[in-house]
Predict the 3D structure of the following.
Amino acid sequence: MQQQEKHTISSERELSEHSKYGLLIGFALFMGGIGFLFNTPQEIWEGNVTILTSPANLLTDYMALTSVGATLVNVSLMTLQSLWIVRMADAKINGPVIAGILTIAGFAFFGKNLFNSIPISIGAFAYAKVTHAPIHKSLLAALFGTALAPLVSELSFNLGIAQPYGILLGIAAGFISGFSIPPLANHFVTFTRGFSLYNVGFTCGIIGTVFISLIRNFGYGIENVNILASGYNRPFIIILSILFSVMLLLGLWLNRWTFHGLNRILRHSGQLSTDYLELGGLGATLINMGFLGFMALGYILLMGGEINGPVLGGIFTVIGFGAFGKNIKNVLPILIGVTLMGRINYHDSQSTLVLISALFGTTLAPLAGRYGTAAGILAGAMHLTLVMNIGYLHGGVNLYNNGFSGGLVAAILVPILEALHLHRTNQRALRGAVNPADEVEIDSGK
């Protein structure tokens, strides 16, 4: 069976590492080029200056703060920067790296920019240098750790600290955060047991809470904001549909116009760490990402929501993790759970907060993949309850607020669900229906 699977994967058309980088560079240039269809070069330049020098805590939609064109160019620049980091670390383009790059692209719509992200990445690589670890060991921390980018902007521009001291303080906080993320993330993955895909998001929630507590103790107040754009559904439906269609067609072409490998992706729980490029091949992974993109976009339109910066961030994160743990099978129960809880609690199902809670809540997709649809719905419902109340702890400086909430949900539910799962397995074994040794054990997520 193993030989047969390997043969199926190897039968697809292969892309060199150079070609994979080229595809991602092409994506970055496409997003930046589209920006010039919305605004003039002067408006884009002025908008990017505003993005670089403004606070960025949740929810600061750059399309509302500046312009669509400036935001898309920021997305392009952040994507190119992340690719440069990957190249510098001499890393291959695999599932986790694709997830990191597209997550950065998504959050470049609201919260991340070149100024506030670079100190964190430098800090993560400094940890590798100090501990004499291979630089690629800190790569994911350098990418995902930019969740704390608003902390840098907040200290630099929003607390009234005289310059250049405010900027220096912000850079120092970013560096310290980045330096702390690799060891803490490695430890916290045992807390969630790999069932929350945004493990670094949980780590950043802890670090952000510590920093915000210190800031508040010095008498500074930090509150969440709600700057959101509206009225851009039509152009972004076209842009996203083109992107997702290209993913599907490229995946099918690589797969020689078959769906080989997709079943292996759909059968896997998605628990950390699951690289779909290794599991099903690049072609099947791109097909999965394209399907997830259309599913996420369809969900937003079905709910009657606005396609704004945070929603775009959620969509790009979903498709990014379509290479690293999410698939159309394990994502759907989470979306249903969040939606049902929103209706029960009388939350506006069209509000951006509920919509992004559903999209980002798919961090818990492996839980549905492992324990089934009912467990996934329960996890989604519980996630919405927590995420609506947990942002105060970190003051909105952790962009992966849903990762923080998702980590707590996984830590609470997994021990209970696993106990029930083992009980059912033992009962079936007693009836001779299954051999417990055949059950897949939970891995450590490392």
Summary: Confidence is low (pLDDT under 50) at residues 1-8, 437-446.
